[in-house]
Amino acid sequence: MSGPRYTDDELLSLSGIQHFCFCKRQWALIHVEQQWQENLRTQEGRFVHERVDDPFFNESRGDVVISRAYPLVSYTLGLTGIADVIEYTRSDNGIAIPDHEGLWLMKPVEYKRGKPKIDERDEVQLCAQVMCLEEMFGVQIGEADFYYNEIRRRQCLKITDALRTLVSTLANEMHRVFRDGITPEAESGKNCSLCSLVDVCIPKLTKKKSPVRNYIGKHISEACALDE
Which residue range is the domain that position 49 belongs to? Predict the structure, then answer.
């Protein structure tokens, strides 16, 4: 990987890259302005992850070892977070892991409450997890899995060069927005109805722009009309 190196104090939440890909303003409202509201989707999502993210629970199934709530960090991306599940499969091309003989290949598995998205917001989050693991262990990971709770099955994600580039670009832009402390303008669209922060963002109102002199002039004219 190439790019800037970040310190511990500069690390941002890895899960936030999904918000940033979905809507940069939403991400800034959460991570810059510290605003958050829950809707049914966020509550269901938290419930799904609570059932998965037990850091004291590991299991073995023959040639597969599963580790849950695995801490991640990348000082190249400047991101830190938690992987829902790391799945290790026995392989001569893998790495050693504590308390288990042999070598093992790593694969993160991300649990989602809904179903596959038409955009890349889930993909960039899982790819960022892969890039963290690669940096932490000096390995190459070619694929990872989603488990979508709504459809009750796994979906494989190929970790392409294009996806890696997108993750790096988004991470760099996240740091720029966070450093500048300026929330991006609203972009009203079909995704707004799915957003838990729509009442905070008020996209239709905040998207409108009007010069201050026009605003003042309008209200002076209205006041004069009332006096006549």
Answer: 8-187
CB atoms within 10 A of CB 8: 8
Q: What 3-state DSSP class applies to 58?
A: strand
pLDDT top residue among 192 and 46 = 192
Instruction: State what percent of residues in the chain have pLDDT above 90.
Output: 52
Report d(CA 134, CA 163) in Å as an integer.
Answer: 15
**Beta strand residue intervals within the chain, DSSP E:** 12-13, 58-61, 64-74, 79-97, 100-112, 143-148, 153-158
Number of structural domains in the chain: 1
Tokens of 153: 């099955």
Please list, in sequence order, all residues whose beta carbon lies within 8 angstroms of the beta carbon of residue 203, skipping any fewer than 6 positions away: 25, 186, 187, 188, 189, 192
The half-sphere exposure of 145 on its side-chain side, counting CA atoms within 13 A, is: 15
Q: Which of 164, 85, 80, 83 is nearest to 120 (CA)?
A: 164
CATH number of the domain that residue 87 is part of: 3.90.320.10
pLDDT digits (tens, 9 = 90+) for 2-20: 556 899 999 999 999 999 9
Task: Please name which of 14, 12, 6 lies closest in space to residue 125, comparing C-alpha atoms.
Answer: 14
